[in-house]
Structure formats: C-alpha cells, structure tokens
Specification:
Elements (H helix, E strand, L loop, with lengths): L9 H14 L3 H8 L3 H16 L4 H10 L10
Helix pairs in contact: 1-3, 2-3
C-alpha cells in the first residue's frame, strides 16, 4: 500500500519548534500533542539549529517558503 505523506507549511513547523524550545517539553510529547511523527519534529528542530548556526534567520527562510506557495497540511494547519 502506498505511503501517505503529510505536508506542513512553514508556520506550522515554526510553531511546533517554538513549543519545544519555549516550554522545554520533550520532542515526543509535543509531537504526540500535535499529531505528528516524533522524527519529523526532531528534523525540523535540527534544521532550525543548523540555520541559526550558519547565521541564517530561520524566520526569513520560513517566510520565503510560504511566499513560494508551499502546500499546507490537509487539515488546514
């Protein structure tokens, strides 16, 4: 059977990363609460850390992705 992949917009990803960063909750707990895979959230966090280390503004990267019409999740988030 084919695998169904969800696509999340930059705003949703940024919010999920922000929850982990600001609350200090475990990645697994936040992922469960949002209904996403723990590994997916961990990847988003890693990418933001890399962008920050590279001197890039993660918010600007998300804004660019949104401007390019990145698809939103099927549930509208």
């Amino acid at each position: 059977m084919a695998e169904i992949r969800m696509k999340y917009d930059g705003e949703f990803r940024a919010g999920a990363v922000r929850i982990v960063r600001e609350t200090g909750k475990p990645v697994a707990q936040v992922a469960r609460g949002l209904g996403i895979n723990e590994g997916t959230l961990a990847t988003w966090i890693s990418r933001e850390k890399e962008a920050t280390r590279a001197g890039l503004d993660p918010d600007a990267s998300r804004a660019r992705a949104a401007a390019q019409g990145e698809p939103r999740a099927a549930d509208g988030t």
